[in-house]
Write a structure and sequence with these properties.
The protein is of the alpha/beta class. It has one domain (42-322): NAD(P)-binding Rossmann-like Domain (Rossmann fold). Helices cover 36% and strands 19% of the residues. The strands form five sheets. It has a six-stranded mixed sheet, with helices on both faces. Strands 6-8-10 form a three-stranded mixed sheet. Strands 1-2 form a two-stranded parallel ribbon. InterPro entries: NAD(P)-bd_dom_sf (IPR036291), Polysac_CapD-like (IPR003869), Polysaccharide_Synthase-Rel (IPR051203).
């Protein structure tokens, strides 16, 4: 996303704020630009956030603790980062009067069953509600919600590659599990598209293809095991069982959100529950085609060849394979 931001409307400066020192160093080594600034800090520290946002026009908020199982066992920490961290960011954005603030959310926030999903839903609601109490500030607040992203940190593709490179076993929680998926480049482009459309108060839900976890594992085993010197049949796939808080199928739009949803070509727009947001849904021309919740169980999954094509069209592919 940082690399795309450098080309997007040619900003004077892009500040990357993260508590991951190693990640910032790697990014600084990879991207050589005098318009980049790398700031160490944590979203739990509001004073540091205000310093980071000084003279900034747009904030893209992607900070989160996102591993479902770990968050189930560490809920206090998840709340501190995902919920209270978002609150700190919102207050800092209003204090510095930034023009636009976009929270990047997840399908797990829709009718959540996990600590991670519940805190991300709260993060969304905090962001949308900020439009009603921003006072004299001109900041527009909105959200973008999508599923798994090929090439992002912590995604399943690098995990499967590591397991294949070790000769297995590959671990699949449930053979019928399905997930929404999108290449990181496409996800980034659609985040920018949502930002350009945003008037304040919307949650943009990106339309995404779906894959079966077992199809992904089998496709990657067939394609990549020979690259690591293994016959695909030698790499076993073990079923580990669903983790605490996980769902078999994910939801991008819940049943309760359908009535507030507007459909565009590449996304849905969930209009705000709060009337005081001043949002006029008639600004969009079409309603939506949904008559039930939008889940990964209801979308035809990608074929194995389509899965491999998507992986190899991702910019992070070479890094993942070489790593």
């Amino acid at each position: 996303m940082v690399e795309r931001l450098l080309d997007y409307e040619e900003p004077a400066v892009v500040r990357v704020f993260d508590n991951d020192e190693a990640g910032l160093f790697d990014l600084k080594t990879t991207l050589d630009s005098d318009r980049l600034r790398f700031l160490l800090g944590d979203v739990r520290d509001r004073n540091r956030l205000e310093m980071a946002m000084e003279d900034i026009d747009v904030v893209f908020h992607a900070a989160a603790l996102k591993h479902v199982g770990l968050n189930e066992y560490n809920p206090f920490e998840t709340v501190q980062t995902n919920a209270l961290g978002t609150q700190n960011l919102i207050r800092a954005a209003m204090e510095e009067n930034v023009e636009a603030f976009v929270t990047i959310s997840t399908d797990k926030a829709s009718n959540p069953t996990s600590v991670m999903g519940a805190t991300k839903l709260l993060s969304e609601r905090l962001t949308i509600a900020a439009n009603t109490y921003k006072g004299e500030q001109n900041t527009e607040f909105g959200c973008v919600r999508f599923g798994n992203v090929f090439g992002s940190s912590g995604s399943v593709v690098p995990l499967f590659l590591d397991q294949i490179s070790d000769g297995g076993p590959m671990t699949v929680t449930n053979r019928e599990m399905t997930r929404f998926i999108m290449p990181i480049e496409e996800a980034t482009d659609l985040v920018f598209d949502a930002y350009e459309r945003m008037e304040g108060g919307e949650t943009f839900v990106l339309k995404m293809p779906v894959f079966r976890l077992m199809d992904l594992a089998e496709a990657m085993r067939t394609e990549y095991a020979p690259q690591f010197g293994y016959d695909p049949s030698e790499v076993e796939i073990h079923k580990t069982g669903k983790r605490p808080g996980e769902r078999i199928h994910e939801k991008l739009i819940s049943k309760d959100e359908i009535q507030q949803t507007i459909e565009l070509d590449e996304m849905f727009v969930i209009t705000p529950l709060i009337e005081d947001c001043g949002y006029d849904p008639l600004d969009y021309e079409s309603r939506n085609s949904l008559d039930a919740e939008y889940t990964s169980a209801d979308v035809d999954p990608l074929s194995k060849s389509e899965i491999i094509a998507m992986i190899e069209n991702t910019s992070a592919y070479e890094t993942m394979v070489e790593g």
